[in-house]
């Protein structure tokens, strides 16, 4: 589990440490970490360190100070270091003096063309908006690998939003704590390394699950278990027009846990043909007992579908409401009244579905996706999984998990149906809804990677990859 704090919390903690440490000590520790990672990347990419050329892009604040001090440390390893000062009058004075003492020089933007590696110290925690034109022009010249100091400049530290020119780093070296940008805009950051500054921080703003966290809670049958004790999930999905959504959601549920899967709906024939182990019926009322429902994928938005969702809400068990189910809640908010208030609900909107359900409630999906998900979760008293390159899962009590994607191949038709089936199976197994959604999103990404292996993948192949992904989670 990695804990993540917004910049306001990190700054406050840094100030407490600054007050009790020698002036400049924290910056030198941070810069030493940057220099070490820069040397490692130089060695990896060019086969050596001494004699290589590093260009520092130095902005107006302490982020630039870190870069200058890192340059001074790199000089000790005989690296040729040139600083390009974007705001010469405001460059960090002690850092610049240290670089000069160590034999570094101040150069011009053209020096970037001859760099073996570029260190991005343009802007850090104080960043606002995209790169300004002068910085953008220098960054546009960069062809060498980039190490970003604290975060890639031009990316918003707290939201990961990019709305103009910004740096894309190969490696980011950050200090004291992970910040939201490192997971909400992971692709911009490259490999992220954390340098410990001994900060004392309270509860994180969000958390990121790792393999061990998922392994700890993934349902594994014990000696006393049978198909019922492990949780029965019901899938209310698919229609005559969209039987495939049912087949995919059912397939994911079947493969996720050893609990029983029931299916209720118009695609019973297709589901039975593909998944003979599933108990199928035509309607939710005939399905028999379940511990959780998945309602919505490919279901349609007519009167019959509305009745299905009402039945699911009245049944008093946990539910995952996706796709058409979300549209139904947006167009018929009275459906919420049917809900048993003690039964947890997980909503899994993509951005357009989020807008459909949240905007009438006064919540807009802006650059701060975490804040939007938290607001909707609190407003509707449900766990909200907001899909995107980084998936945000917010519980109604304010806890948040973020799950970064590792590639874009999961953005394919039917992928969301697979995710909802996974969530349903984990809810039926009794997982806390936040963890059910977070672990499902985590496994979905891994299965997507296994299915894709660097090429487009159909969602049915993601379903087929689930057992391998679970094996990798449970057995390392
Ligand atoms: N505190 C500590 O203990 C430690 C801090 N550490 C380091 O300090 C960093 C924070 O430093 P910081 O607060 O001095 O500001 P920083 O991010 O360098 O910005 C400088 C100025 O840039 C400008 N600017 C804004 N947006 C811009 C944009 N898009 N494009 C271009 N320019 C832009 C804006 O100035 P403006 O021109 O608006 O007046 C802003 O004031 C932190 O990330 C870490 O690296 C470490 O050493 C560990 C110990
Ligand atoms: K930076």
TrEMBL record:
<dbReference type="Pfam" id="PF01256">
    <property type="entry name" value="Carb_kinase"/>
</dbReference>
<keyword id="KW-0630">Potassium</keyword>
<dbReference type="GO" id="GO:0052855">
    <property type="term" value="F:ADP-dependent NAD(P)H-hydrate dehydratase activity"/>
</dbReference>
<dbReference type="InterPro" id="IPR030677">
    <property type="entry name" value="Nnr"/>
</dbReference>
<dbReference type="Pfam" id="PF03853">
    <property type="entry name" value="YjeF_N"/>
</dbReference>
<feature type="domain" description="YjeF N-terminal">
    <location>
        <begin position="10"/>
        <end position="205"/>
    </location>
</feature>
<dbReference type="InterPro" id="IPR036652">
    <property type="entry name" value="YjeF_N_dom_sf"/>
</dbReference>
<keyword id="KW-0067">ATP-binding</keyword>
<feature type="binding site">
    <location>
        <position position="245"/>
    </location>
    <ligand>
        <name>(6S)-NADPHX</name>
    </ligand>
</feature>
<feature type="binding site">
    <location>
        <position position="417"/>
    </location>
    <ligand>
        <name>(6S)-NADPHX</name>
    </ligand>
</feature>
<keyword id="KW-0547">Nucleotide-binding</keyword>
<feature type="binding site">
    <location>
        <position position="153"/>
    </location>
    <ligand>
        <name>K(+)</name>
    </ligand>
</feature>
<feature type="binding site">
    <location>
        <position position="150"/>
    </location>
    <ligand>
        <name>(6S)-NADPHX</name>
    </ligand>
</feature>
<comment type="similarity">
    <text>Belongs to the NnrD/CARKD family.</text>
</comment>
<feature type="binding site">
    <location>
        <position position="298"/>
    </location>
    <ligand>
        <name>(6S)-NADPHX</name>
    </ligand>
</feature>
<protein>
    <recommendedName>
        <fullName>Bifunctional NAD(P)H-hydrate repair enzyme</fullName>
        <ecNumber>4.2.1.136</ecNumber>
        <ecNumber>5.1.99.6</ecNumber>
    </recommendedName>
</protein>
<dbReference type="GO" id="GO:0046496">
    <property type="term" value="P:nicotinamide nucleotide metabolic process"/>
</dbReference>
<feature type="domain" description="YjeF C-terminal">
    <location>
        <begin position="210"/>
        <end position="473"/>
    </location>
</feature>
<keyword id="KW-0456">Lyase</keyword>
<dbReference type="InterPro" id="IPR000631">
    <property type="entry name" value="CARKD"/>
</dbReference>
<keyword id="KW-0479">Metal-binding</keyword>
<dbReference type="GO" id="GO:0046872">
    <property type="term" value="F:metal ion binding"/>
</dbReference>
<feature type="binding site">
    <location>
        <position position="416"/>
    </location>
    <ligand>
        <name>AMP</name>
    </ligand>
</feature>
<comment type="function">
    <text>Catalyzes the dehydration of the S-form of NAD(P)HX at the expense of ADP, which is converted to AMP. Together with NAD(P)HX epimerase, which catalyzes the epimerization of the S- and R-forms, the enzyme allows the repair of both epimers of NAD(P)HX, a damaged form of NAD(P)H that is a result of enzymatic or heat-dependent hydration.</text>
</comment>
<comment type="subunit">
    <text>Homotetramer.</text>
</comment>
<keyword id="KW-0418">Kinase</keyword>
<dbReference type="GO" id="GO:0016301">
    <property type="term" value="F:kinase activity"/>
</dbReference>
<feature type="binding site">
    <location>
        <position position="350"/>
    </location>
    <ligand>
        <name>(6S)-NADPHX</name>
    </ligand>
</feature>
<dbReference type="InterPro" id="IPR029056">
    <property type="entry name" value="Ribokinase-like"/>
</dbReference>
<feature type="binding site">
    <location>
        <begin position="124"/>
        <end position="130"/>
    </location>
    <ligand>
        <name>(6S)-NADPHX</name>
    </ligand>
</feature>
<feature type="binding site">
    <location>
        <position position="120"/>
    </location>
    <ligand>
        <name>K(+)</name>
    </ligand>
</feature>
<keyword id="KW-0521">NADP</keyword>
<keyword id="KW-0520">NAD</keyword>
<dbReference type="GO" id="GO:0005524">
    <property type="term" value="F:ATP binding"/>
</dbReference>
<feature type="binding site">
    <location>
        <position position="63"/>
    </location>
    <ligand>
        <name>K(+)</name>
    </ligand>
</feature>
<comment type="similarity">
    <text>In the C-terminal section; belongs to the NnrD/CARKD family.</text>
</comment>
<keyword id="KW-0413">Isomerase</keyword>
<feature type="binding site">
    <location>
        <begin position="387"/>
        <end position="391"/>
    </location>
    <ligand>
        <name>AMP</name>
    </ligand>
</feature>
<dbReference type="InterPro" id="IPR017953">
    <property type="entry name" value="Carbohydrate_kinase_pred_CS"/>
</dbReference>
<dbReference type="GO" id="GO:0110051">
    <property type="term" value="P:metabolite repair"/>
</dbReference>
<keyword id="KW-0808">Transferase</keyword>
<dbReference type="InterPro" id="IPR004443">
    <property type="entry name" value="YjeF_N_dom"/>
</dbReference>
């Amino acid at each position: 589990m990695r804990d993540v704090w917004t910049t306001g919390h990190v700054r406050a903690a840094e100030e407490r440490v600054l007050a009790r440490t020698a002036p400049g000590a924290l910056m030198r520790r941070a810069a030493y970490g940057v220099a070490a990672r820069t040397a490692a990347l130089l060695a990896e990419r060019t086969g050596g360190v001494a004699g290589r050329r590093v260009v520092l892009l130095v902005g107006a604040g302490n982020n630039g100070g870190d870069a200058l001090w890192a340059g001074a440390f790199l000089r000790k390893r005989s690296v040729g270091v040139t600083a390009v000062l974007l705001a010469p009058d405001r460059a960090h004075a002690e850092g610049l003096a240290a670089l000069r003492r160590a034999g570094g020089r101040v150069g011009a933007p053209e020096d970037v063309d001859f760099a073996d590696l570029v260190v991005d110290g343009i802007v850090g925690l104080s960043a606002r908006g995209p790169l300004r034109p002068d910085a953008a022009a220098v960054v546009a010249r960069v062809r060498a690998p980039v190490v970003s100091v604290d975060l890639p400049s031009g990316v918003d530290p707290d939201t990961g939003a990019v709305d103009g020119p910004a740096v894309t780093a190969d490696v980011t070296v950050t200090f004291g704590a992970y910040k939201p940008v490192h997971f909400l805009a992971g692709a911009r950051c490259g490999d992220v390394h954390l340098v410990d500054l001994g900060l004392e921080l309270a509860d994180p703003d969000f958390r990121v699950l790792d393999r061990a966290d998922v392994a700890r809670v993934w349902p594994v049958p014990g000696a006393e278990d049978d198909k019922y004790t492990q949780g029965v999930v019901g899938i209310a999905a698919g229609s005559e027009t969209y039987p495939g959504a049912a087949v995919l959601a059912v397939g994911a549920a079947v493969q996720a846990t050893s609990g029983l899967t029931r299916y209720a709906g118009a695609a019973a024939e297709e589901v039975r043909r593909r998944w003979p182990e599933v108990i199928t019926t035509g309607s939710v009322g005939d399905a028999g007992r379940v511990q959780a429902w998945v309602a919505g994928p490919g279901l349609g938005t007519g009167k019959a579908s509305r009745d299905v969702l009402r039945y699911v809400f009245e049944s008093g068990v946990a539910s995952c409401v996706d796709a058409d189910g979300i549209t139904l809640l947006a167009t018929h908010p009275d459906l919420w009244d049917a809900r048993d208030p003690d039964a947890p609900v997980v909503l899994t909107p993509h951005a357009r579905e989020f807008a459909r359900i949240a905007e009438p409630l006064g919540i807009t999906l802006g650059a701060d996706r975490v804040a939007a998900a938290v607001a909707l979760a609190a407003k509707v008293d449900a766990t909200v999984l907001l899909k995107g390159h980084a998936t945000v899962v917010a519980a109604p009590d304010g806890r948040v998990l973020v799950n970064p994607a590792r590639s874009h191949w999961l953005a394919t038709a039917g992928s969301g149906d697979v995710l909802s089936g996974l969530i349903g199976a984990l809810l039926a197994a009794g997982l806390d809804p936040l963890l059910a959604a977070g672990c499902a999103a985590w496994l979905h990404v891994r299965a997507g990677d296994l299915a894709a292996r660097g090429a487009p993948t159909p969602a049915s192949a993601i379903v087929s990859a689930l057992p391998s992904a679970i094996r990798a989670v449970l057995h390392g």
